[in-house]
What we know:
The complex is a heterodimer of chains A (319) and B (97).
Chain A: H1 5-26, H2 30-50, H3 54-78, H4 94-118, H5 125-131, H6 140-148, H7 150-170, H8 182-205, H9 213-229, H10 240-265, H11 276-300, H12 310-316
Chain B: H1 4-25, H2 29-51, H3 61-96
Helix pairs in contact in B: 1-2, 2-3
Amino acid sequence: MIIDAWLLLDLILALLVLALGWASLASPDLKRGVTLFIAFGMLLALIWARLRAPDLALAEAVIGAGLTGALLLSALRDDPGLERPGGPGRDGSGWWLGLLTLALAGVMGWALTHALVWHPNSGQAQAIAAALPESGVSNPVTAVLLNFRAYDTFLELAVLLVAVLGILALGPARPAYRPAGPVLAGLSRWLLPLLVVTAGYLLWVGAHAPGGAFQAGALLAAAAVLLRLAGQADAGLPGPAARRWLLVAGVAAFIAVGLAGLLGSGAFLQYPAGWAGSLILLIESAATLSIAVTLALAFIGGRQSEIPVSPVEKESTPC
Amino acid sequence: MLSSSLIFALTGVALFALGLRGALLHPALLGRVLAINVSGAGVFMLLVALAYRGPAGNPDPLPHALVLTGIVVAVSATALALAMGRRLRQLEEQADD
C-alpha cells in the first residue's frame, strides 16, 4: 500500500510533537525544558492548522506558546525555589507509577482505535450547521461559544476571574524588568500599535472568520507583556479602580445580557430575534478587555502597590 | 485503517500519558506545572482529532469551542499554580529562618 503524502506529513508531525513533549519534560535543565515547551506550543499551532482548526491555531500560537512560555520563564527568573526538588515521588516508587500510566495509555489507545474504526464519529456538526443562520454570526466556532453554548463561555470567564483573584490574593507583584535597551525599545514601538490593531481586527472578524474574543484578548495581553518586558512595571494597565472594572467587564456583560433575555423572552441568555449579532459583539468586546487584563495581571503575578520595592528586593537577595 | 484522525488521537493519548507521568514524578514544582500543560495539550489534541472530517469535510466546531476555552483556562490555571508555588516557597523560607 502506498501511504499518501498527507499521512506521511501527519506521522512526521505526530512524532515531532511527541519528541518535543518528551524532551521538554526529560530535560534536567528547566530553562531548556521551558524553551522546548515553547517550541512544542508552536508545533501544536501548526497541527491545529493542519486539522482545519484555524481558531485554535491562532489561540495556541498566542497563548499556548507565547503567554505560557513567558509566564514559565518569568517564574524561573524570580523563584529559583520552583526548580528545587520537592514533594513526594522522589523515592523508588517511580517505576510502578510509570508502568501504570503506560497501561492507562494502552487501554485508552485500544478503546479509541476500536471506537474510531467501528463507530465513525457523528458529533454535532450537522445540527450546528443547520442552526448557524439564526445564530447572528457565520463563524461556527463563535456561534457555539457565544450563542449555542454561551453558558459555558460565561462560566469560563467566571473561572478566569476566580483564578486572577487567587493570584492577586497570594501576594505582591513579581519584580519589574529594567528599562529596555535601544533594540527592544525600538522593536516594541513598532510592535505595540500593530498588536493593538490586530487585536481589534481579530475581535471584529471573529463573527465570520477565524478569530474572536479569546484570540483578541490574548493578543492585547501579549502587548502588555511586551511593555512590561521593556521595563514598564504596570504593563500599560490603568489604575487599580479601572483594573477592577475591566476584570469584571466580561462577566458583567454576560449577566446583563442574560438577565435582559430572562425578562424579555423568559430564558437566561436567550437573545431576542434579530439582535443576536449585536449582542454577541457587545459581550465579545467586554470579554476581550477582561481576558486581556486577566492575562496581563497573571503575568505581573500579584498585587501592585504604589511602588513594590522593599519586600521584593529582600526576597531576591540570597540570605 | 490508518487515518489522520487516528494518528493524532493516539498521539493525544500518548501526550496525555507522558504529561500525567511527569506530573506525578517530576522532581521540581515547575516541572510538574510543565507536565500538566503537556497532558492538557494531549487532551486538546484528542478532541481536535475527533472533530476532523478529512480534507474535504467541514470539521465539527463543538470540540473546537471546547478546546478554545480549555486553552485559556489552562494558561490562567498555570499562572495560579505558579503564584501558589511561589507563595509556598516563601512560607518555607520563612519557616527555615
